[in-house]
Amino acid sequence: MFSLPNGPVCFEFHPYQLNFRIRWPGLDILLRKGWLVKIRRGEEAGWGECAPLPSAGTEAPSRARRALERACGRRWEAEALLAHLQALAGPAPAAACALETALLDLEGRRRGLPLRRLLAPRAADAIAVNAMAGSACREATKEAVQAGFRVVKLKVGQDAPDRELHCLRELCATLPPEIRLRLDANRAWDPDGASRFLQRLEGLPVESLEEPLRDPDPATLRRLQETTPIALAADESLKELGTESFLEAAPVRRVVLKPMAHGGPARTLELAQRALEAGMVPLITSTLESAVGLHAACQLAAALDSLHP
């Protein structure tokens, strides 16, 4: 998907930590830690980011650090580096993502191309994004709409279903007609609870519900999807249930892909292509990384746009 540099390269990595200005719904962390990774070939350099978040499907920070230490302890020739990245994507996807992103950045700088054009020559120059506006009963949707967002994501499954549905109905009564909601349950319910919640969303401008089931499996997800016009979306379930078997089963209408959890932009784009071929719509998101990782995720989303018919 992209060419490797001629001649040996070497990596170095540097730790960072960032304070969250607000508490992120569903996460009990106020400090984000990770590493910025630099690849060097002579005077040329490229950058990537390793931001592990095990709850999002990555390895633990300790494993990520060990993987970076091994990668940064030697000089790499092209073939050995490619083989190493392929082997690393499974056990240490966040470390692999950082190394691959840095390599792509280096190659893009050499060729005078943005990352998205390395991944897909017909990549878009702009992408649509949703706002993250809190949870159903503690939301900032009005501010998101005023900022220009047309799709707003909210967490559900954090309060009693009756209360959340009441909050959602009150909210939707105030929304402009073009606004759509994406809901994320973070595996809040059993199948019956998820089905009841979906039924009671009827008539509301909800386009998708992510990870509704506490203990998901492809067959149950398929049955649940067949009962609702709302698109169900899989995130962590994709890896936990086995990426290959999940893509083959295609039990839901959407998959949420995080390059940090799947080994880098190029590998994630391949998964997105396979999801499309299976009839599922892929969406790109982040693991709350810094601007380096977010930039790569946005570039990947722009490349993905070129795959849609």
Task: Please provide a written account of the structure.
The protein has helices at 61-71, 78-88, 93-111, 115-119, 141-146, 161-172, 191-200, 218-226, 236-240, 243-249, 259-262, 265-277, 291-305, and strands at 9-19, 31-41, 44-50, 75-76, 131-135, 138-139, 151-155, 180-184, 206-210, 231-234, 254-257, 281-284. With 309 residues, the protein is an alpha/beta fold. The protein folds into 2 domains: 9-115, Enolase-like, domain 1 (2-Layer Sandwich), CATH 3.30.390; 131-305, Enolase-like C-terminal domain (TIM Barrel, Alpha-Beta Barrel), CATH 3.20.20.120. The strands form 2 sheets. An 8-stranded mixed beta sheet has the order 6-5-7-8-9-10-11-12. Strands 3-2-1-4 form a 4-stranded antiparallel beta sheet. Helix 6 links the parallel strand 7 (151-155) and strand 8. Helix 1 crosses helix 3 (93-111) and helix 12 (265-277) packs parallel to helix 13 (291-305). The longest helix is centred in the first third of the chain and has 19 residues, at 93-111. The mean pLDDT is 93.
Provide key terms for this protein:
309 residues, alpha/beta, Enolase-like, domain 1, TIM Barrel, 8-stranded mixed sheet, 4-stranded antiparallel sheet, 12 strands
User: What is the terminal-to-terminal distance?
Assistant: 20 Å
* Overall structural domain count: 2
CATH architectural category of the largest domain: Alpha-Beta Barrel
- Percent in helix: 40-55%
Profile the largest sheet: 8 strands, mixed
What is the CATH level 1 assignment of the largest domain? Alpha Beta
| Secondary-structure class | alpha/beta
CATH superfamily of the largest domain: Enolase-like C-terminal domain
What is the alpha-carbon Rg in Å?
20 Å
Strand content: 15-25%
Which spans have pLDDT < 50 for at least 5 consecutive residues?
A: none
Instruction: Give me the side-by-side strand order of the main sheet.
Output: 6-5-7-8-9-10-11-12
- Listing every helix as H and every strand as E from the N terminus to the C terminus, the arrangement reads EEEHEHHHEEHEHEHEHEHHEHHEH
Helix count? 13
Q: Name the average pLDDT.
A: 93
Number of strands: 12
CATH names the topology of the largest domain as: TIM Barrel
Structural shape:
elongated
